[in-house]
Amino acid sequence: MTVHTGRHFLQIPGPTNVPDRVLRAMDMPTLDHRGPEFAELGLHVIAAMQRVFRTKQPVIIYPSSGTGAWEAAIVNTLSSGDKVLMAETGQFATLWRGLAEKFKLDIDFVPGDWRHGADLAEIEKRLAADKSHAIKAVMIVHNETSTGCVTHPQDVRKIMDRVKHPALLMVDTVSGLGSLEYEHDAWGIDVSVAGSQKGLMLPPGLGFNAVSDKALAASKTNSSFRSYWDWEEIIAANKLGSWPYTPATNLLYALKEGVAMLEEEGLDNVFARHKRHGAAARAAVKAWGLETVSIESHDHSPALTAVLMPEGHDADKFRKVVLENFDMSLGTGLNKWKGKIFRIGHIGHFNDLMLMGTLAGVEMGLELAKVPHRAGGVMAAMDVLTGKSVVPMTKAAVA
Amino acid sequence: MTVHTGRHFLQIPGPTNVPDRVLRAMDMPTLDHRGPEFAELGLHVIAAMQRVFRTKQPVIIYPSSGTGAWEAAIVNTLSSGDKVLMAETGQFATLWRGLAEKFKLDIDFVPGDWRHGADLAEIEKRLAADKSHAIKAVMIVHNETSTGCVTHPQDVRKIMDRVKHPALLMVDTVSGLGSLEYEHDAWGIDVSVAGSQKGLMLPPGLGFNAVSDKALAASKTNSSFRSYWDWEEIIAANKLGSWPYTPATNLLYALKEGVAMLEEEGLDNVFARHKRHGAAARAAVKAWGLETVSIESHDHSPALTAVLMPEGHDADKFRKVVLENFDMSLGTGLNKWKGKIFRIGHIGHFNDLMLMGTLAGVEMGLELAKVPHRAGGVMAAMDVLTGKSVVPMTKAAVA
Amino acid sequence: MTVHTGRHFLQIPGPTNVPDRVLRAMDMPTLDHRGPEFAELGLHVIAAMQRVFRTKQPVIIYPSSGTGAWEAAIVNTLSSGDKVLMAETGQFATLWRGLAEKFKLDIDFVPGDWRHGADLAEIEKRLAADKSHAIKAVMIVHNETSTGCVTHPQDVRKIMDRVKHPALLMVDTVSGLGSLEYEHDAWGIDVSVAGSQKGLMLPPGLGFNAVSDKALAASKTNSSFRSYWDWEEIIAANKLGSWPYTPATNLLYALKEGVAMLEEEGLDNVFARHKRHGAAARAAVKAWGLETVSIESHDHSPALTAVLMPEGHDADKFRKVVLENFDMSLGTGLNKWKGKIFRIGHIGHFNDLMLMGTLAGVEMGLELAKVPHRAGGVMAAMDVLTGKSVVPMTKAAVA
Amino acid sequence: MTVHTGRHFLQIPGPTNVPDRVLRAMDMPTLDHRGPEFAELGLHVIAAMQRVFRTKQPVIIYPSSGTGAWEAAIVNTLSSGDKVLMAETGQFATLWRGLAEKFKLDIDFVPGDWRHGADLAEIEKRLAADKSHAIKAVMIVHNETSTGCVTHPQDVRKIMDRVKHPALLMVDTVSGLGSLEYEHDAWGIDVSVAGSQKGLMLPPGLGFNAVSDKALAASKTNSSFRSYWDWEEIIAANKLGSWPYTPATNLLYALKEGVAMLEEEGLDNVFARHKRHGAAARAAVKAWGLETVSIESHDHSPALTAVLMPEGHDADKFRKVVLENFDMSLGTGLNKWKGKIFRIGHIGHFNDLMLMGTLAGVEMGLELAKVPHRAGGVMAAMDVLTGKSVVPMTKAAVA
């Protein structure tokens, strides 16, 4: 049995630290999912999620992981053989591609070095070249959780408008929603994909799609087999606050509370808080003499900071030292970054002192694991938080 | 806002009343799903579910509704055009059939009157006639939640053995598992389908497949598109107590506790308790001068009792009277039973006095809704519970 | 370990069934009891309790049992040798008397038979005879939890006014408050004593005094040693929402929620609900051919029903049968009623079906314990709840 | 409404951060306090508290604050006019003295400067001079929460033995128990006083007395009025796991879990953890160029660190800055320290990263509040935690 002498620091970039209010909301007796009290809840959470996605169009809530919502985006709108344009931003883009391959999509994968957002120039080039509009969808990861690099969906939208490409724009904002600005309607997103366990501050177990009319129209003519993920039936049932199958009632209680908390703080304040924490974390990394995976200021994620280990030092060994000495979980390096980076999550229910505990844990872990570094990261982070050092805000930060 | 002056009686046949211990277990901080503490939990719950299914073969746990586990059973083992034999036992059999149709299976649907278990004679006839073994799977609902009629999977297995048919045997035991005897291995089931929100006493949000080697072999050669539901990757990850995507961590805490409670009571005691409550409920119905949907003693479900309304009386109007006067949710009539029956759930975390409160609520509701009936159902039920009236045990009860 | 296969029925007359909302409210991180967020809570719960006591005068909240609040009433206003008039209504009156004896009060104890409220005629006689006003306080138990007999404080107030006696009127309403009408100001009560674990629907751990200006004035000149229970310091600190010592923070969260629930239902509805349940319980007792301890309709408690066992049958043996067979706790007979009565609590978070489960448990327990009785109590109770039998309302019921 | 964007840092020296396990344990339905399941709990927690106090003699658990347990110690063993020797170590010693005065004890108060443990030389002198043994009790505060100075009870015991003084030794270990070594039996303590909301990691609401045979004997001949606090009845009832009045059931659930957590970690590890955190906190204070209230290494508390503000700077203004900017509650200066010191609690459910978040909050608060200080406290603390700087252990630390 693991002995926790205080609170575990869950600083992976999701699942994130779930607020007590959300846990307690979830911890209430399950309701009849066909009764009037539930219907009220159902309508409430759907409207709440529309506000979070900033959309007036349908939001679908699945009992699923975020992965399930990826699959839903595909099976509703695309068929085997359909051409799609994806961008290699990291492991989650790669996994989504893998999923798309299982459904036999024809994938044009814009290469990337896992240290940047999507290659926008290349995307524009390929879209412009696609005169026949063979590309049915452009699929982008908003906040690439494996690298801490952001691809701004509005940048992609501008490109598509510029080259007048009619493809659907699909965005995975699993670890972006509720942490970074997101505008499903204003940015012209056709399918947004999200999950409960990041900025929404819930345990894992809910997946989301926000869908545009255009996406809905595409789904009507799409012949891919689907049932569980099928939008149509769900949207129909949702009008009365119900679902075609038993929804994950208690996670919906949690969702109501999570969104209430986001709105009490104010979404804009939530976004500003994440940016501030991102800036402080990067200041720490710099002071340690280490390098963030993300290079360009336009790409830095406000939700997590991925850090390169010095050559010859294993990131997972370091993470183990941190876990065993300081009861903190850091994110592992995924796929090609395995052992080479670690990731600091600062998404969700979080504040300055939790961040400082986190960064102190990293700094002490570097010391104990004998990873070459300079002391003082925590000092640099405090200077950002107290405003002593003025941080040049990233474009993300002022978007 | 609904005012509850005491505990709501959630007597639909699932979701069921979730024990405080399970809710409280769920109400704990989310863990790193890639860390060692989680791995211990992962291995624990998989083993626990193997004991509940009574299998030594893999059990897959999905973040999904039970419906998702239906879909998983199909997409892993069957392809469009495959012939399957299903039996019309009620609404859930019909829904599963509808799902199978969406995946373009070729369905042979043995008709039923929604008042019995599956027509075993007809199943045997059709299987025997299928000399070419075109039928790839026999798909049966164990406890038909829409009617309260049981189809005993071991009966179907005996038929298949008798006619030496090699089809897969797939069983939906969503509302059976943890309430009625179930033996995945001993009964030669190939795919079992279950959900968290019935006999396992959890909130909705988890779906389950238990799979045989034969089903696994079938999945290896099956070319149906799938990713989320794909067994292979999950089984591989499960060996280390992890999942290929973020599992519904907090529902897994709940699952650990729910199975612990079943095992503290003892599964055999759990089954006996449900039978006793079923017998008491049926005694009440009989005393009221009403009729259960289920006719044959072999078919009576220990988990719920569906009751026919007297001609000219609307079941949903009656349910509304009960809800508004007594804060009790009863199950609605589904599909062709709409308005004609109501269902009394006695699954899960339940005891004699909860049952008596439930039956008293029905009897008083009949009175207030002016439904013709005789008083005394609660008396008859008490006689069963105290042993004053010896109830001829159904075959289900002694299975 | 005790195995509970469903919810335990906690039908002692307190502690009562605590609502999930109250438990969950209590289950939140403890706050700084000297900070601004706590101060808001402090002011909130004091105001809330004033509304429940129906007073504009101070309410003091102790981290204590109700017994502590008894002691507080005494040590703040009375000194050793002071004469007080008490009435023997049952065990709690007797215990309060015992406490008063420990503080060397000179107690005039009006005798009673433990089957009625206080002997008002005798009280009037003794007060009238006390021309010198030696009696400093009249101390009455509102709802005598050991017998289910009510003494109406307003009746006592009328007597005191009639004979123009200036003694303080002190009322133990531990099991009355939040279940029966109570008017601290309008009825001219000087010290009210209450506890958290009855009609307020909280776990035990808080005691209350509501005090009049007259009582406060008495406390100022009273020289009894006291510190923990001293009103003065607490009232002073309470003005800022704080306490002179660390208050039971999490029980205060519970209190906020408990009162919120009472007010959502409406106190008058709460009282009517208790009366209705009392009437139904008494109808059941009558139908069983048993006798309630309370004899006069003016005295019947809406909060609990005490039942006499037939001669030669041990009430505690019966209670054991009920506990072991039906997982229900009934109240034991106290002191001279030991073994001779059992008590059915229907206070607090309660509804018709919980009552019916309770009464069914009693009826089945009588059967299993072979206690002579007629069947049909549950039927009689249902007739009251459905309005089929019109119950002559007690004076308590229309007060 | 206060918006918390992450967890509040409750760094007052009690109430302390309550572990989720303890909160969740408390959040379970209330039991019949006269039933067998409760009796098991009662016996369990009494035995558990005996292990924590390291005593085989009775432990009494009150529904009360720690203040109540102070009063209990006095009213059980002492009468008005009795002479007692107390030592002015700070506000809590002063408050206990105030309480003793209310009960008209004759108090010899050994003066102190609120920056040290008790003046042991002076205590020895006064005890030695008391040839007639007029002094009935020596009353000491183990861990003076208002200053962070420890008086080691075993030191006092040695003095009493040396001068062969038969007075009772009473120790307030409210904020010591469960954080600092404590040996009720081995150190010859007669009455120990404790509370739930510090090292036991519970919410406030329980007070404790551990009592020696000698103290019990004294109580038998002591004529002070008492009822609620009376040991005798409670000890008698406790033998069967019950109480003479309704105990605070749900706080007892919490107590069971809190002690379980202490024992899973191991009490010796718990003590070592607190010392380590104390050393790190003092290193931070020193690095800031500030001064701890506690001067001598023998006196430093492992449970909290009190810090002197630079002349001309108001501690409460600083605390407000910290609360508003960093959602952290620090302890205020009490009485003569009002405005001049702040206190950092590191008691209870706590770990290195929580400490680092705490110290970072202090350092950033000093910056924002423009309190003169040197940066680098957090660095110095990290050096202690990583073992880079070897801290000369205080005698307390090696006791």
TrEMBL record, chains A, B, C, D:
Residues 36-316 form the Aminotransferase class V domain. GO terms for biological process: glycine biosynthetic process, by transamination of glyoxylate. Keywords: Aminotransferase, Pyridoxal phosphate, Transferase. The modification N6-(pyridoxal phosphate)lysine is found at residue 198. Pathway: One-carbon metabolism; formaldehyde assimilation via serine pathway. Substrate binds at residue 343. Its cofactor is pyridoxal 5'-phosphate. It catalyses: glyoxylate + L-serine = 3-hydroxypyruvate + glycine. The keyword Transferase applies. It holds the Pfam family Aminotran_5. Its EC number is 2.6.1.45. The keyword Iron-sulfur does not apply. Gene3D superfamilies: Aspartate Aminotransferase, domain 1, Type I PLP-dependent aspartate aminotransferase-like (Major domain). GO terms for molecular function: alanine-glyoxylate transaminase activity; L-serine-glyoxylate transaminase activity; L-serine-pyruvate transaminase activity. It is an enzyme of class 2 (transferase). Belongs to the class-V pyridoxal-phosphate-dependent aminotransferase family. This is Serine--glyoxylate aminotransferase. It comes from Tardiphaga robiniae.
